[in-house]
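Narrative of activities, Objective 1.

The group set out to show that a structural description can be obtained from nothing but a protein's sequence at a throughput compatible with the screening campaign. Below is one input-output pair from the validation batch, recorded exactly as produced.
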Amino acid sequence: MDGLRKPAVAGSFYPGHAAALSDMVTGLLADASTDTLAHMATPPKAIIVPHAGYIYCGATAARAYAGLVAASRTIRRVVLLGPAHRVAVRGLALPGVARFATPLGEVALDRDAIDGIRHLPQVVECASAHTHEHALEVQLPFLQSVLDEFTLVPLVVGDATADEVAQVLELLWGGPETLIVISSDLSHFLPYAQAQAVDRTTARQILGLRPGITHDQACGGTPINGLLLAAQRHGLAPHLLGQCNSGDTAGDKQRVVGYASFAFTSPEQHHAI
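Output recorded for this entry:
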């Protein structure tokens, strides 16, 4: 496995120049730093974060990433899952490269972890599913800004079941050195008030650890459902950190996209909240 996955949406979803990108992410994290989970002594085991352009959802995503700052030296591996927007794929797709790049630098993939899931029938290799996919890429500048050195296991989730996703997560679960990141927006292109109602229902479902999130509720419904199954098995507690839609930030209220960020903490972390 060799090669580099180059950034596909730098300059559109987020600033394309390193200095401007760093300034923007630093500012978003600073604004979110007063959130409760930002001061946890130990980090969440998993987070759900949106993946639209930063002007739309960056502040919501930052509310989850700010909670990782205290664990910058603890987290050494990030398992990053997001939905396939552009290329249809069966299962969970690996990129077949060694590194991912953003304007902030390169992130190496975790070869050992990837080798540990290749035997699963639902895990495939599909470079084209990653080439132009934004859902994973937009999370990397935040991760690069809050963590020190880390490796990456990037998976684009296509036609798969929640159980198949959960099985992959189980093999990659690890300990406090491993963070799971699920990249997903919520409802798409509904009028403002209707979107708010739908997204509130989705948030309640996630907070209740109830799988069955549809793709109308969240484009990353499949990886979310897989995480919810795994969270049940591991006794994780979900927390809603922030919720809005594009009508609240930089968009038309006639057709909005919903965003939310969640953190999932393990039992020993509950006392810190």
